[in-house]
Design a protein that fits this description.
Length: 324
């Protein structure tokens, strides 16, 4: 016999927000997972970090703050016997004592949480630019300490034994209400973020670690990826049939990234609304990347690297702006 289980997990992803937080349950993201299983994603007012705003305040307008995590709620049907096992203390001690039924249930919950967490990190980190969220979030039961099921007496009880708690620094910008709504749309039809979005998040993470050298290499690779993705759509307006992607890659390789970027910056800056100072910094960053790779240049002041990475970030956003 199967019964309906209500499960909630506070995932310790310290997301930044701006002027908004999805504390109203009517604004939580709803995701169909599989047959008889539905998930919701949001947060409560209690999860708002004290740093950056008054924790008791309901007015978050024009305030940037962080949260201590996101809540994932799951509703689904599993065998009734699982609830009887979870009530026994011996199944909540470490190391875990398992039986096949309980082990399968825990694996089901873990897989659902992992997949949702992966999609959240991919989008919030690489699409919305919160690079400080780790791509290497430890996907195991230790990641989900605060996972509970609601017993028939209304009490929330643990599914896994409590082990570790993960924390991250507070940041200076975050998701807006519009971002949260867009995230919901993206999670409904999960798609991987463009590679250059991932590489830019990596570059900014390297800056956090004061590694300007690797940050420049990663960001210039992101610029190259963005340009290669843009060129086919540009040429599609002019040539028929489309030029094969491999041929375009070879053309960029033969011309070199600096020449390819220069042509775009000189002849398409008005069409793409490119800032001339950012264009200049991008070309300088390409030269520095070449010196790093070919001449083993090592000393890159992190403040200089921050300016180059910021310029490349803005150029990539302009190239990928709607309508371009």
């Amino acid at each position: 016999m199967e019964i309906l289980y209500k499960i909630k997990c506070e995932v310790p992803l310290r997301v930044s927000w701006h002027g908004y937080a999805p504390t109203d349950s009517t604004e939580w993201i709803k995701l169909p997972i599989k047959d008889k299983v539905v998930a919701k994603i949001g947060m409560t007012h209690a999860l708002i970090a004290i740093c950056g705003c008054d924790k008791e305040s309901k007015d978050l307008t024009n305030t940037t703050f962080s949260s201590d995590g996101l809540i994932i709620e799951i509703e689904g049907c599993w065998p009734k016997e699982i609830s009887e096992l979870l009530r026994k203390p011996e199944f909540l001690r470490a190391p875990l004592i398992e039986n096949d039924l309980l082990k399968t249930f825990r694996q089901d919950i873990q897989e659902i949480l992992e997949q949702i967490s992966f999609n959240l990190i991919d989008n919030i980190r690489n699409y919305f630019g919160q690079w400080w969220l780790s791509e290497n979030f430890p996907f195991d039961e230790n990641s989900f300490n605060d996972t509970f099921w609601r017993d028939s007496d209304g009490e929330w009880k643990r599914i896994y034994p409590k082990t570790i708690v993960l924390k991250c620094p507070v940041r200076l910008f975050g998701l807006s209400k519009r971002d949260w709504q867009e995230l919901g749309t993206r999670l409904q039809k999960p798609t991987k973020v463009n590679m250059f979005g991932t590489m830019m998040a990596n570059a900014k993470a390297h800056l956090d670690n004061n590694d300007g050298r690797v940050a420049i290499v990663e960001s210039v690779c992101a610029l190259e990826s963005a340009i290669k993705q843009y060129i086919p759509s540009l040429l599609a307006e002019m040539v028929e049939p489309p030029i094969p992607e491999g041929l375009l890659d070879n053309a960029v390789k033969e011309m070199g990234l600096r020449l390819t970027a220069t042509i775009i910056f000189v002849h398409l800056s008005k069409k793409l609304n490119l800032d001339s100072d950012n264009c200049s910094k991008c070309l300088q960053a390409i030269e520095i990347r070449n010196n790093i790779v070919h001449n083993q240049q090592r000393a890159i002041p992190v403040n200089d690297a921050r300016q180059y990475v910021g310029a490349i970030d803005q150029i990539i956003k302009s190239i990928n702006a709607p309508g371009n």
